[in-house]
Design brief:
Length: about 160
């Protein structure tokens, strides 16, 4: 009686698992490459600035990447499969209706207008994000101040 339903559910789960395993197999080499790139950047920064400053620069860069990722995630709302399917269908219909090519639609005026319109809407989630992560932001600011004020004070001192 329920064999068809169970079989369909099993195929659906198998398809989902297969899709995510395939994505994982593709992502792993990129993660390894990111690790080696991070190691190379750390070695180069250590040669140029010393170990403490190099680690601080690497920490700040990863904190910046994390903040960018958090902002992107905060601005992209949760989508349901039905909503994404409806959006893709409407996008396909719009693409079919706009068959004629346009010149460069991305002009500096359009970009400035979009940033001006999105600015007020972006401030509230950005402030919430900073307040939610205030200890991390303060720690990064204090660490940066300590490391770079120490470096400036020590620049004129000759070591015997």
């Amino acid at each position: 009686m329920f064999e068809g339903l169970v079989t369909r559910a099993q195929r659906s789960v198998d398809s989902l698992v297969s899709k995510y395993v395939t994505r994982l197999v593709v992502a792993v080499p990129f993660l390894v490459a990111l690790g080696f790139g991070t190691a190379a950047a750390s070695v180069k920064l250590t040669e140029d600035y010393g170990s403490t400053a190099a680690h601080a620069i690497m920490a700040a860069s990863f904190a910046g990447l994390g903040l960018i990722a958090a902002v992107v995630i905060a601005f992209s709302g949760p989508t349901t499969p039905q909503a994404s399917t409806a959006e893709s269908e409407s996008a396909a219909q719009a693409a079919a209706s706009d068959a004629q090519p346009t010149a460069s639609a991305l002009t500096p005026e359009l970009v400035l207008t979009a940033l001006g319109a999105a600015g007020p809407a972006a401030i509230s989630p950005l402030i919430r994000l900073v307040v939610r992560n205030l200890p991390v932001v303060l720690l990064a600011l204090i660490l940066g101040y300590i490391l770079f004020s120490e470096r400036k004070a020590g620049d004129g001192v000759a070591v015997d």
